[in-house]
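Researcher: I'm preparing a figure for a lab meeting and need a structural model of a single chain. I don't have an experimental structure, so a prediction will have to do for now. The sequence is pasted below. Please return the structure as tokens so I can convert it later.
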Amino acid sequence: MQTRSSSGLTLIELTITLGIIVILASVLLLVMEIPELEQKARDNKRLSDIATIERIINEYANNAKSFPGIANTTYASNVIPDEEEGQDILVSGWIYADFTLYSPTLPIDPKNTDNHVYSYRHNGKAYEINASLEYFDNLMQEDNGDDPALYEVGTNLSIL
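Model: Understood. Here is the structure written out token by token.
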């Protein structure tokens, strides 16, 4: 009987090796993209939240015939207001107003830190809502607001 000695790889060994390389490469690419994907997800949440806050403020203003909160006061989502003197208002979020007809709570920024916070201010005639985005920088520059480092919506984008 003759025995064959082969120094090459069999088809099965080659397939297994290529499979392992593909899996490792996929995991490496996924790990490298995770921070970017997280930033994009947080920004998508921010854009949705800002639309919700804008809807709540518009509905409140339409019903109450005034904007929520005290005029010329800046409200930030990382600060819950204390009860103010002479006001008996149920606070359902970070803007001092009763929004229970429109939403159980106001959304807050996914990070909700000093650098990533929702802010709101009105002057009695118009309002502005701001957010800082991480991934969609172009939206901050194209929103027609006065600050290219913030995403701004509202009826007057120069209040904040």
